[in-house]
Amino acid sequence: MLQFVLKRLGVMLLTILCLTFVVFFLTNLYPNLERLAKTQGNNRMTAEQVESWLDGRGYNRNVFVKYGEWLGVVPGWTNEINGVPSGRCKPITGDVETAPSYCGVLQGYLGESTVFREFVSKIINIRLGLTGWLMFAAFGLMVPAALIIGVLAGMREGGKLDRSLSTFAIATSATPEYVSGVLFIVIFASSAGGLKWFKGSSTSAMDDINFGNFTLPVLTIALYGVGYIARMTRASMAEVMTSQYIRTARLKGVSFRGVVLKHALRNALIAPFTVIMLQFPFLLTGVVIVETLFNYKGFGWALVQAASNNDIELLLGLSIVAVIVVLLTQLISDIGYMFLNPRIRVS
After folding, report:
1. CATH number of residue 309's parent domain
2. Fewest CB within 10 A of the end CB: N or C in the chain?
3. Are residues 60 and 180 in the same domain?
4. SS3 helix, strand, coil % of the chain, rounded to 5?
5. Within the chain, what is the greatest distance between any pair of CA atoms?
C-alpha cells in the first residue's frame, strides 16, 4: 500500500509539473503579454513601449527561466522601472533589498494579482473557502439523494419505480447547469415565474448564508450530479441483486429487506464510491458556471475573472489548485476503493 501511494504521489507531482507548465506557457504567449502591457499601461502604447514595459517587468525572457522563478527554483528577476528598483519578490517585503531571492510556489508565494492588487494566495484562500461551503452543501444534498434513488431503482430492475427514477436520473444528468440554473431563477426567483421564493443572486451569501440566497446554486450543482451517481448506483445495485449469493440468501428465507440491507447494499456501493469521488473535478467546472450565473464570488467566479481580465498570476495560482484537487480526489478514490473491496490488491 505504501509503495502504491508513493508511486502515485510521484506520478501526481510529474502531472502537476506538466500541466502547470502547459498553462504557464499558454498564458505567457506574446499576444497575452502584449494585452497585459496595454491593460496595465496604456491601450495606445506603441510596439516599442510594449517591449520596454515587458522588459522592465521580466516578461521578455526565456519561458523556462520564468517558469523556474514561478516554481521558486530560480532566483526572481530584479530590474529598475523608471529609476525605481523592482523585482518579482519585491511585493513580499515592499523593498528589493530585503526581499528574498527565491519566491515561488515552493516558498508559498504565487505572485500578485494585476487586477485585484492583492496576493494571489490571499485571494485563493478567500474564494476557495466560499466555494468550499457551496460544494459541501451540494455534496450533502447530492450524495444521499443519488444513493437513495439508485438503490430504490436497482432493487427491482424493470419495475415501474425503476423506470420512473431512471427517467428522472437521465433527465437531470442531461441538463447542464446553465440550463437548470436559469430555469430555477425564472421559476423560483423572478416575478415572471410567479414564485419569488428565493433570491436570484447569491452575493449576500458570501457574508450571511441563509435558505433564500443559497438554495438555488446548491440545487443547480447537485441536480446534475444526482442523475449521474444515481445511474451508476442503479446499475451496480441491479447487478448485485442478480448475484448467486443473493439468490441463495432468498432461498434460505431471508426477507427481501434483509437481503438488501445486509448483503446487497455494501457491495452495490463500491462502484458508486469511485464515481462520487470523481465528482470533485466535475464540481470544479460546475461552480464556474453556477457562481458566475448567481454572482457568487468564489473559486469559479475568480477563475472567470482571471481569464477574462488576463490576470496571469491569478490564473496560474487557480490552475495549480484545481489540478491538485483533481489529482488528490483520484488518489483518495483509488485508496478507498481498495478498502471497500477486499478482492482488490496492489501488486
Report:
1. 1.10.3720.10
2. C
3. no
4. 70, 5, 25
5. 89
| Nearest in space to 314 (alpha carbons), one of 79, 119, 49 | 119
Distance CA 249, CA 272 (A): 24
Indicate the residue type of 35. Answer: R
What are the strands, taking DSSP E only, across the chain?
A: 78-81, 84-87
Burial class (CB in 10 A: 0-12, 13-18, 19+), 106: exposed
Q: Which grid coordinates are listed for 85? A: 528598483
Residue 335, burial from CB neighbour count under 10 angstroms (0-12, 13-18, 19+): middle
Query: Based on C-alpha coordinates, what's the Rg of the chain?
Result: 25
Q: At what angle do helices 120-155 and 160-173 cross, to 10 degrees?
A: 160
- Domain limits for position 171: 121-340
Q: What is the pLDDT of residues 251-294, one digit of tens each?
A: 777 777 777 777 777 777 777 877 787 777 777 777 888 999 99
- 285 bridge partner residues: none
And the C-alpha cell for 345?
Answer: 490488491
What per-residue confidence (pLDDT) applies to 75? 92
Neighbours of 140 (CB within 10 A): 12
Beta bridge partners of 85: 80
> Domain boundary at 69, 86, 109, which?
109
